Amino acid sequence: MTDKITNWTSADDAMVENAIRRGASRRELLKMLLAGGAAVAAGGVVLGRATQAVAGTPVSGGNFKAAGWSSSTADTLDPAKASLSTDYVRCCSLYNRLTFLDKDGKTQMELAESFDSKDAKTWTVKLRKGVTFHDGKDLTADDVVFSLKRHLDKAVGSKVAKIAAQMTGFKAVDKSTVEITLADPNADLPTILALHHFMIVADGTTDFSKGNGTGAFVLQTFEPGVRSVVTKNKNYWKSGKPYLDSFEFIAITDDSARVNALISGDINFAASINPRSMKLLESQQGFELSKTTSGNYTDLNIRLDMDPGSKADFVAGMKYLVNREQIVKSALRGLGEIGNDQPVSPANIFHNPDLKPKAFDPDKAKFHFQKAGVLGQSIPVVASDAATSSIDMAVIIQAAGADIGMKLDVQRVPSDGYWDNYWLKAPVHFGNINPRPTPDILFSLLYASNAPWNESQYKSEKFDKMLVEARGLLDQAKRKEIYGQMQTMVSEEAGTIIPAYISNVDALSSKVKGLEANPLGGMMGYAMAEYLWLEA
């Protein structure tokens, strides 16, 4: 016989949920259900449903304290100069962007109400009305024009000056309309402006110490290299947000110390912990781990313009020698997804899922090494702690090579000076690339013939032409097709081996709710403060 609830309505559900929020005991709740005509078994169903609903409903109030892993006396509240995760977190709490990337990697509107173009070269941006800065000033088109033009001023020192250089014209059509003109068509402009550096500041701002933005929080304290404290913006234009009363952000550089601070209750959130520190949480209750795989990777770079990379068979042999499964399991302690030698990760909407990674095949590797005439030679491979997990990766590849008579001489060099002295320079070396929101940015930085960070010196006129073509197309399906082909070209032709996309792991108290993954990185793409709440 099925238990039924008679005369039970959504209003009754709401009554039970409110009682749970007030802290009613299970006995009191069952009495309420029985009085409403619910049988005992059915009452249990209602209680489970109501408890789940309450757990997923944001709660206002509370003081949230989080610890990142890096800080510097050069920490800044100027979005254009932001360079560390600490800068991004603070800027995301104080300012807004025209657009933002959601958890699925799709571009959504924020301060912009709409973003339109007929040719991907001239863009019309309509701004939301009723948005104010912390000092009470209304948001206008002049603020947007000023904020974007700053990146072109060399004196500002913008970290995205090269990306911003494509914007050649800015016009405030009226108080809520901006026209942006590009040097060449680029359909990615709305996505590019979701980068943290393109936060909107008030027209004429030169002093950023007050953090005057349109964001969810208002600055109370900022001590560069130490901490920041922000409090709820009661006039925030997003209805109901933020949920937190305040947010304090500090840095604890040591992983174990960061996790211990979480366990002791000194903080609610420990960002980016390593696998060894995760063990500290295994025997503890009341804590959770949040995993984000957003496109960060460590790659093995073989320069195609130097020996031995100038021999195509050496590169082919190395791609078969890399045991991707073992790298994810051992070097990354399971915190990663297998890569297929191209930079567009599964978190990106343009990722090509049909491109399969090279299988680990020592016999094929040996065949290509013999063909290249390098079997038995000693090949230097430069690795460093500066490139995440590269030393562990190098040892795994070295051992596989030894099994087939391929001598790889792993040269471990100091972190200090690695990026200046070895990256992009050594014939065979490791790199580490942070997530970027579009294939165009990744390919332009890393694989175009004139790319500033062309790690393997890959050159292809066909690839360069496809890059320009895809950039100017408004047809997303056609762009995805072209980017898929370009991913295949990089995987098969370039000298970069990307064995895995590395997962970032944040640790948090179970009372912290609302955290989701984001393609821009951990801590919800560094924007978590606006969206989280603390369970009552």
From TrEMBL:
It holds the Pfam family SBP_bac_5. This is ABC transporter substrate-binding protein. Its main location: periplasm. Residues 108-451 form the Solute-binding protein family domain. Keywords: Membrane, Signal, Transmembrane, Transmembrane helix, Transport. It comes from the Bacteria. The lineage of its organism: Bacteria, Pseudomonadati, Pseudomonadota, Alphaproteobacteria, Hyphomicrobiales. Gene3D superfamilies: Dipeptide-binding Protein, Domain 1, Dipeptide-binding Protein, Domain 3, Periplasmic binding protein-like II. The chain crosses the membrane at residues 29-48. The keyword Transport applies. It is found in: Periplasm. InterPro entries: Peptide/Ni-bd, SBP_5, SBP_5_dom, TAT_signal. Belongs to the bacterial solute-binding protein 5 family.
